[in-house]
Amino acid sequence: MAPIPKGGTVAVTGASGFIGGWLVRDLLSRGYRVRACVRDVNDGAKTNFLKAMPGYVSGRLTLHSADLNVAGCFDKIFKGCHGVAHVSHIDASGSESGGYGDDDYTKMVNDHIIKSVNESDSVTRVVVTSSVAAVVSESNFDEMVKRPVIYEDRFPDSNNHRLSGYSRSKQQAEHFFSNAAEASGRWDSITCCPADNVGPIQSAHQGDRGPWQGLMKKMLYGECNPAVHGYRPWHTVDVRDTCAVQIAILESVMVQNGERHIAYNTHKIEVEEVCARIDKLLPELGFTTPDMTEDLDEKGIARRAERRAVYAGTDLRNDRTRALGITYRDLNDSLRDMAESLITVGEVKPVLRPGYSLNKD
Ligand SMILES: NC(=O)c1ccc[n+]([C@@H]2O[C@H](COP(=O)([O-])OP(=O)(O)OC[C@H]3O[C@@H](n4cnc5c(N)ncnc54)[C@H](OP(=O)(O)O)[C@@H]3O)[C@@H](O)[C@H]2O)c1
């Protein structure tokens, strides 16, 4: 199917989020018209950063309230759009069931979006945001040893009883969209599977979202637990590079319905090295790197070594996105920008060595 035309109109779900917010900014800077879908346009804490973008004042960026739990809420928004970037999480907002891992709920919310795409009569391409978690189940160590090369056509072992609800729902969403696209004959659906997104936040509320901003925030406050996530290293990608992948997918004449594209900069980094790097990258800040020594018995030391060896033996690939023309940023730039943005935009007060203070203090 046709890629979106240059300067065309793209709807972005989850536009108030970490990835969605950058996608809005980057689409605007490439000349597109953007319909940013947020839960409540009047929620200033989450939307003011979007309204401050230059495209908003001219009308090239418009904001729309839409909760994906409500059937039909995207109908009007998608009409006339050329592309849809489905970035948002799914979330049943406090109801007893719903959210990742609930198959009926997952189907319902994806059906809401698919129906609006079908009824738009204009959308030719959808990019669905999945995750590397839908490529590899990182809690299944045997599986990672058996199949250590992690690339787009790999799926987690479906018999793995420890497969997370998040991974299952992401895989289901990919299939719902590509099947619906094939049935439509008018649009296609291509998936972006991001790794662990690092880079700058644009709004304070994003500092509390996503595991990675939250973890660096804790580090800046002087807390770092190397065992978090079972010693899994961060498989990093700059949030702006994830968005470059999504835009390349929307623009490409090469991609095919149902294809997946892993957004990953090929750098895995241990949790404590992320923390130690804050001081290395920003020596002027005077950050007090917390003591990260673990008090482990022999069993604990063996467990840590075993887990780290499994992760070190895996080979997560990004060949397909490099073939799309993506050049990934230096990880140090992403970590530096993330730390600085958490301090400036997120108003985090980092623990500093005696004699140091923030310039704004
Ligand atoms: N961050 C990562 O490292 C990472 C890695 C792999 C994949 N991903 C995927 O990338 C996507 C975006 O992640 P992110 O880190 O940008 O997350 P985020 O900052 O938490 O943003 C998620 C967005 O989804 C919106 N949302 C949630 N429930 C909604 C609903 N019922 N109706 C409408 N909007 C809803 C949120 O709106 P509110 O602001 O109103 O809550 C928010 O804008 C997700 O699909 C995630 O699974 C992220």
Strands of the biggest beta sheet: in what spatial order? 3-2-1-4-5-7-10
Describe the biggest sheet?
A: 7 strands, parallel
| Distinct ligand kinds | NADP nicotinamide-adenine-dinucleotide phosphate
Name the helicity range: 25-40%
**Gap between N and C termini:** 54 Å
Q: What would CATH call the architecture of the domain at 9-198 and 236-267 and 316-329?
A: 3-Layer(aba) Sandwich
Q: What is the fold-level CATH name, i.e. the topology of the domain at 9-198 and 236-267 and 316-329? A: Rossmann fold
Strand pairing plus helix content: what structural class?
Answer: alpha/beta
Count of alpha and pi helical runs: 13
Name the overall outline. Answer: globular
Please state roughly what percent of the residues sit in beta strands, choosing from under 5%, 5-15%, 15-25%, 25-35%, 35-45% or over 45%.
5-15%
Order of helices and strands: EHEHHEHEHEHEHEEHEHEEHHEHH
Poorly predicted sequence stretches spanning 5 or more consecutive residues: none
Q: Give the CATH superfamily of the domain at 9-198 and 236-267 and 316-329.
A: NAD(P)-binding Rossmann-like Domain
Rg calc:
21 Å
Strand element count: 12
Estimate the mean pLDDT confidence.
Answer: 95
CATH C-level class of the domain at 9-198 and 236-267 and 316-329: Alpha Beta
Quaternary arrangement of the chains shown? single chain
Structure description:
The chain is α/β, with parallel strands linked by helices and 361 residues long. It has a domain at 9-198 and 236-267 and 316-329: 3-Layer(aba) Sandwich (Rossmann fold). Helices cover 39% and strands 14% of the residues. It is built from 13 helices and twelve strands. Helix 1 (18-29) links the parallel strand 1 and strand 2 (33-38). It binds NADP nicotinamide-adenine-dinucleotide phosphate. Residues 14, 16-20, 39, 46, 67-69, 87-89, 91, 129, 131, 194, 196-197, 206, 209-210, 212 line the site of NADP nicotinamide-adenine-dinucleotide phosphate (NAP).
